[in-house]
Amino acid sequence: IRKIFNMINGRTDVFDMTVGIPDFDTPDHIKEDAKKAIDDGYTKYTHNAGLIEVREAFTRKLKRDNGIDADPETEVMCSAGGMGALVLANLILINPGDEVIYPDPGFVSHYAHIKLAEGVPIPIQLKKENSFGITAEDVEKLITDKTKMIVLNSPNNPSGGIISNTELKRIAEVCIENDIYVISDDAYEKFRYDNEKPLFIGALPGMKERTVSIFSLSKTYAMTGWRIAAVTGSSEILDAMTKLQEHIIAMPTTVSQKAAEAAFEGPQDCVDEMLQTFAKRRDIITKGLNAIDGIELDPPGGAFYAFPDISAYGMKSYDLVLKVLKETNVAAVHGSAFGDFGEGFIRLCYAVSTERIEEAISRLDSFLPKLL
């Protein structure tokens, strides 16, 4: 992804649909509270798990939005973005040689973090025919006596696939039966387009003690640069993660912690506005891409990415995105960047204006059919 990004960095003629950064600004009430925090002296070290008032605000959010009960003293911590929490959780839970099931195509850092912890990454294929959702049946097929953990990411990056409530319950049962831990990467928790009220695996019976649930604020509140997330799990796991964080970054930035408190406790209409906007853009990009000869795309279930099937063009996805960039100035990401099972697809981020989406589709339509 970074290779493509570096190729277009600084170019003003490119329609960039690569990096998943919301085109909204951080909501005003969050910024104002952060400014006030600086004036009020929140510029010093905090507890390694974060300020207690922030953790308390997060526990209220967990109860309200996710159905998870947590003790703010022992079962919650703040981290330096979702990435910070993912690294900590992997390093704490994985021993060398442990097998970890992870989504493919999926967020590239999941694989990297497993390798960093000297685990053995076991990809689970997210299939187009299953709308890129994980099924319990597919999980069971990959379990061995070395399986330690599974990583879930629903809605999924890059496909927008979601795990249905029915399958999530079945996956939880499989994890309990086989004594498997779970990292639930909930970065896109608010960006779902179906009518089913989502369940969260950490809230299911028997799962709290074996699940680390990570809630990044980067996407939900357009706070990618603030580097702040909040995490919940068992007191044993969270205690170990907090101790490890102490020796890596001490704690996330104090001002960002206060901004997170404002996000959790403040009005949520900003999130609703983003969701409604992304839903409209999803419809536009789905209709537009499907009108191009050679492209197939089912409406993404969540997040803000389209992951169309481009196999009809008979080219490797990396070669295709380079050719598209050269001929149309539209920048996309090759599906193989997200794992071997991503080959045959490309990712287009629609966290950009409607006008840019429509122009990008027009440019793609003027070129791609020529490849058939």
TrEMBL record:
Keywords: Aminotransferase, Pyridoxal phosphate, Transferase. Pfam families: Aminotran_1_2. Residues 13-364 form the Aminotransferase class I/classII large domain. Its cofactor is pyridoxal 5'-phosphate. GO terms for molecular function: pyridoxal phosphate binding; transaminase activity. One of its GO terms (biological process) is amino acid metabolic process. Belongs to the class-I pyridoxal-phosphate-dependent aminotransferase family. This is Aminotransferase class I/classII large domain-containing protein.
